[in-house]
Structure prediction request, 146 residues.
Amino acid sequence: MKVCDILETKGRSVETVRPWTSVAEAVRRLAGPPRIGALVVCADSGGPLLGMITERDVVAALGRLGPALLERAVEEVMSTNVPTCPPDESLSRLMAQMTRLRYRHVPVVSEGRLVGLVSIGDAVQHRLREMELETGVLRDLYHAGR
Prediction:
């Protein structure tokens, strides 16, 4: 299974925010509805990717800056050098990268443009479906051979 298979199921819509947006607005967007864990930071719609602001970034910045954080711009607290993946990346490789780098959200980029976002929850859900299918096939083969 590949990342593009996940995007076909969940869609390619990505919640983005501009770098000059206030952290207060970003927090409102993260809190939802729907509640989301990350916003991709882009200068314009669709890319290029400048960074990402996550719940984890907000909590860390709140510890450093206190309530004044809410008046700051997203670009002051966002994660930069965010790992990305192409749509044809294998699911197992993506999951290994997410685990190794401790990222829960990975933007999907094709030809320098943002085309989707995959969360660890998306990856686990699709891997479970894949395993259920494999189990069903093996069970059928076993029963057919008896």
Q: What stands out?
A: The first helix runs from residue 3 to 10. Helices lie at 3-10, 23-31, 55-65, 91-101, 120-144.
